[in-house]
Design goal:
With 538 residues, the chain is α+β, with helices and mostly antiparallel strands. It is built from 19 helices and 17 strands. Strand 16 and strand 17 form a beta hairpin. The chain is globular and about 75 Å long. The two termini are 31 Å apart.
């Protein structure tokens, strides 16, 4: 879970937290695990910080977030630590924490937004002038699109200037030409059933799944949601987490970094006439979580889930003809099936090997400032196709793509569904909880928490300790003293022995504990809950 400064504490809670001086009994705080302690790596300190913050104990939350930076060390931990410090009016320390978060995830929108909040507090005179100057010196480079460095030898607080980010240099690997395999790029099927059988086949998994895009021409299409239904719907502009089942609508003028230039606010009603006007103004319409309000889409999601053992989320996109670019070149964290329902839209795809199977924002391009892609340098696409009604385009996770409706009459509207088959942690709109990630890096972290966090304490560390205790009882090698070169520079014997024993540990964790079963059971529980929600919608 990520926090924003503006939402971390109310003014009343902050005042209470700052006045809190007595030693806190952790057992009285809802959400804290039994026996919680800052100095133990087995606890989820980030979640503990959130629980303490929610209960109004800011100083204790700060210590918990600090522990999270020590034991987890990801960008989210440093960002939450920085937000808590900001609320505690420890502005310079907050700036340094934010800078650490930025160094780990330089393109994270949440980190950048919190840095802007901190700089805004400085600009408005919300902190002492000396601290304001130091905070500004630390962070102004980041806010301007630079990778500033906060560390100075000797532990002083004066920052050193960082170097400016140069997207063209950093993105050379994106523009590098690649040799793609000579596999079929289009296929035809006589029915929805034939299409579903094929994508469940070994051939599809071995040739295309998470590897290459492919176009399917399916007689009769695979979904019944219609353009006519969209155009007679009265929509609600925007989406709030607690109201995620409504027919929401957003308008994007060509880039994901701008979601609204038309002056609408949640929960304004958008009439069919206003929708048409937005399309005529060259905006792309987006509606999230279509499976929550459209039965045929829920049924399609359920069927895809049975094939791939994952959840599926669906967004609807509509655009007018004549657009040179519908959405700028970018990639996503999902494998997607583009289901064309009405009109035509041109798609171009580039399955760049270095970017495939993205699991975090570091491998996502084209959406954030500083990571825009130059169409003139990207090269010839692997697939360029004009999708028409009933066509389906499969795009693997991380594959670059873009759209346009160039040469199509403005009066011809394109409507398609983007059906994301989710492997990376994602929000389940039906329950407002996160579905755990389904990638090998997350699996090996031992984390399948509902909040999608990357800390491994939940299942891996207990299994690790069980395996170690078991081996120490039955294998004398684990009870021997550390080799004599342990304290010597470049000692090799003790490292070699540790590696040997660690290999035994890995086998014991997988074969001698319930670690693997715990992972499967937890994910299966969440998946079954999601499928029941989809089945109910059907």
């Amino acid at each position: 879970m990520q926090l924003r400064a503006a939402a971390l504490l109310s003014a009343a809670c902050l005042a209470c937290a700052l006045l809190f001086t007595a030693a806190l009994d952790f057992g009285t705080v809802s959400g804290l695990p039994s026996g919680y302690a800052y100095g133990e790596g087995r606890f989820d300190h980030n979640s503990a910080g959130i629980a303490l913050d929610t209960a109004g104990h800011l100083e204790e939350a700060i210590l918990a977030f600090k522990s999270s930076t020590k034991y987890t060390g990801d960008a989210n931990s440093f960002m939450n630590y920085g937000v808590a410090l900001m609320r505690g009016r420890k502005f310079v320390a907050s700036a340094k924490a934010m800078l650490s978060a930025h160094e780990i995830q330089p393109y994270s929108k949440d980190v950048k937004d919190n840095i802007k909040d901190l700089l805004g507090t400085s600009a408005r005179g919300g902190m002492p002038s000396g601290e304001a100057a130091e905070v500004t010196a630390l962070l102004e480079g980041v806010a301007a699109g630079k990778a500033a460095a906060a560390k100075k030898k000797g532990g002083g607080s004066e920052p050193t200037k960082g170097s400016e980010l140069k997207p063209s240099a950093n993105l050379d690997h994106v523009y590098a030409k690649e040799a793609w395999p000579d596999t079929p790029r289009e296929m035809s099927f006589g029915s929805r059933a034939e299409f579903m059988v094929y994508i469940a086949s070994a051939e599809f998994r071995e040739t295309y799944f998470e590897k290459l895009p492919v176009v399917f021409h399916v007689t009769g299409g695979i979904n019944a949601y219609s353009y006519e239904k969209v155009m007679r719907t009265h929509w609600v502009f925007g989406m709030a987490p607690e109201e995620s089942h409504h027919r929401n609508i957003h308008f994007v003028p060509g880039t994901f970094r701008i979601m609204n230039k038309l002056g609408y606010n949640f929960p304004d009603e958008i009439s069919p006439r206003q929708l048409r006007a937005a399309l005529e103004a060259n905006h792309t319409m987006i509606s999230h979580g279509v499976q929550l309000y459209e039965k045929s889409v829920a049924s399609m999601c359920h069927d895809l889930s049975k094939i791939f053992d994952r959840v599926a989320n669906v967004n609807a996109y509509m655009a007018a003809g004549g657009l040179d670019s519908g959405i700028n070149i970018h990639n996503d964290l999902q494998c997607v099936y583009i289901v064309q329902l009405h009109g035509r839209k041109r798609w171009r795809t580039w399955p760049k090997a270095h970017m495939l199977l993205a699991t975090n924002d570091n491998l996502i391009f084209g959406k954030d400032e500083g990571k825009e892609l130059d169409p003139s340098r990207i090269g010839e696409p692997y697939i360029e196709t004009l999708l028409a009604k009933d066509d389906v385009l499969y795009i693997p996770r991380g594959c670059l793509h873009t759209t346009d409706t160039k040469g199509i009459p403005a009066s011809e509207h394109s409507l398609h569904l983007t059906t994301g088959v989710e492997a990376v942690q994602t929000l389940d709109y039906s329950t407002n909880k996160n579905i755990p990630a389904f990638t090998m890096d997350t699996l090996l972290q031992g984390s399948t928490r509902d909040d999608g966090s990357s800390a491994s304490a939940d299942q891996f560390l207990p299994a690790y300790m069980r395996a170690l205790n078991s081996l120490a009882q039955k294998d004398v090698e684990f009870r021997k003293s550390v080799p004599s070169d342990f304290l010597q520079p470049g000692g090799k014997l003790w490292k070699a022995k540790a590696k040997e024993l660690m290999k035994k540990m890995v086998d014991e964790i997988w074969d001698g504990t319930d670690f693997a079963d715990d992972l499967v059971d937890h994910y299966k529980t969440r998946l079954v809950t999601w499928r029941k929600a989809m089945k109910k919608m059907c």
